[in-house]
Amino acid sequence: MMKVTMKKVLLTSALSVLLLMSGCMKVSEKSVMERIESGDKKIVWATNVTTPLVGQLNVETGKVAGYDSDVARALTEVITGSAENAIFVEVSSQNRVAFVKNNIADAVISTMTITDEREKQVDFTDSYYIGGQALIVPEDSDIQAIEDLTADTIVAGAKGTTMMLNMKTIAPQAPTREYDTESEAFTTLIAGQADAYTSDNVVLMGMMSKTSGFRFAGGRITDEPYGIALNEDEDEFREELNEAIAIIRENGTLAEIEEKWFGDYY
Predict the structure, then answer these.
(1) Residues pairing with 130 in the sheet
(2) Would you identify the family this protein belongs to, as annotated (predicted)?
(3) pLDDT of the residue at 248
(4) Fold designation for 2-129+225-265
(5) H helix or E strand, kind and range, residue 216
(6) Which homologous superfamily does the CATH classification assign to the domain defined by 133-222?
(7) Could you tell me if 100 and 91 are in contact, meaning their C-beta atoms sit under 8 angstroms apart?
(8) Calpha distance 260→119 (Å, rounded)
(9) Who's near 55: CB < 8 A, 6+ residues apart?
(10) What is the mean pLDDT of the chain?
(11) What is the spatial distance between Cα 203 and Cα 208, in angstroms, rounded to a whole number?
(12) In the chain, what are the domain boundaries?
C-alpha cells in the first residue's frame, strides 16, 4: 500500500512540475540563441508525456523517456554542451502550435508532421524521422487493411493530428471520433467503443508495447516527415538545430536512439 501511495505522490509531483511549466509565462523576451549565448543554456522542449516509446513520464525518476525526448537531449548536448540543459513541458496534439507561438516553449518535438498548413504558423527544422500513418485493431478483428473500413466501423484518433484529417480522404465512409490525447483514443479501442485506432506508426507501437491483443491492419498508409516546430522569428535557432540534426545523424546517434525505442517493432 505504501509503495502504491508513494508512486502516486511521485507521479503527482512530477506532473505538477510539468503542468506548472506548461502554464508559465514566456520563456524569455530574448531569442533562444541570444539567451544561450548570454549564459542561460536551458532549452525548453514541448513534448508528449503520455505515449510509450515516443514520450512518457517515468514515475520512478520524474523524467520524460522516449524517442522524442532522447532526440531532444542529443540535440541539446550538441548545441549547449550538455543534455542536462534540456527541459521538458507537456504538450498535446491540439495545443503544440500555440506553445511556440506564445513562447511557452522554445521548440516542439512531438511526432509533429511537417505540412504546408502548419508552416503558415510555425517554422520547422529538417526532418529527423520519417513516420507514417497506420491503423491498429483488435487481434480478432476482420479488418485487415484501410480498405476494409466501412460506414459501420468507427475509427478513433487524437485531435489536431494529420491522421484524422487524412481519414476524410483515405476512408471518408468511416466515422471518426477524436480525443484530446493519443492515450484516450487508444483507451476507446480497448473498451470496444471503436473498431480501429489510427495514428503515427511509432505512437501505435508505443501503445501496443504496453497492452497486448492488438495488431497492425496493413502497412504504413502514408509517409510523415517529423520536424521540430519553432517560432517564425527564430532563424538562428533553426539553423543550429538543423546542424545538430545533421551531426547526430552522421555520427550514428540518431540511429541508436531509433533502434533503442522502435527496434523491436520493425
Answers:
(1) 225
(2) Belongs to the bacterial solute-binding protein 3 family.
(3) 98
(4) D-Maltodextrin-Binding Protein; domain 2 (3.40.190)
(5) strand 214-216
(6) Periplasmic binding protein-like II (3.40.190.10)
(7) no
(8) 30
(9) 47, 48, 49, 64, 65, 66, 67, 68, 69, 110
(10) 88
(11) 9
(12) 2-129+225-265, 133-222
Cell readout for 183 is 492515450
Residue 160 has a pLDDT of 82
The residue count of the chain comes to: 266
Instruction: Check: CB of residue 234 under 8 Å from CB of residue 105.
Output: no
Classify residue 147 by its DSSP letter: G
Give residue 26's pLDDT band: very low, low, confident or very high (50, 70, 90).
Answer: low
Cell, residue 67: 524517442
At 48, list the grid cell: 508528449
Burial profile 211-221: b = 16 or more Cβ within 10 angstroms, e = fewer: eeebbbbeeeb
How many angstroms separate the CA atoms of 23 and 55, rounded?
19
Task: Supply the DSSP string of 80-117, one letter for each residue.
Answer: HS-GGGEEEEE--TTTHHHHHHTTSSSEE-SS-B--TT
Matching fold, domains 2-129+225-265 and 133-222 = yes
- Cα–Cα distance measured from residue 106 to residue 31, given in angstroms and rounded to the nearest whole number: 9
How many alpha carbons lie under 13 Å from residue 187 in its C-beta half-sphere? 10
Burial class (CB in 10 A: 0-12, 13-18, 19+), 175: middle
| pLDDT computed for residue 187 by the predictor | 96
Beta bridge partners of 79: none
